[in-house]
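We treat protein structure as text, and this decision shapes the records that our systems exchange. The tokens are whole numbers drawn from a learned vocabulary of local backbone shapes. One such record is reproduced below, unchanged from the form in which we store it:
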Amino acid sequence: MIDENPEKKQPFRLNPAVSPLIQLRKRLKYNRAEFAKRLGVDYDTVWRWETGRRMPHLTWEQIQKLDEIFASAGIRFKDFPSYLGPPPDASPDALDEE
């Protein structure tokens, strides 16, 4: 069978040792500054989410933007884990990836 859409994105599979938000951002080829701008927050906010220092408190507009970002990566919002930062047993090296 021939794939009629060779540009189709591969399924998003999470590495449990790295922040899912970092993985999403890298899949989209955004650095933190680009991702923050797209979502309407600042760089430090994204860094805090990715490192688990803060949980997001999003406005409805930001939730809609995040949903658009997820869709552009081929991810359904409900399939993303309930945490954005690293899992509790993540290595320190995984916490501060740009």
User: Anything to note?
Assistant: The first helix runs from residue 20 to 27.
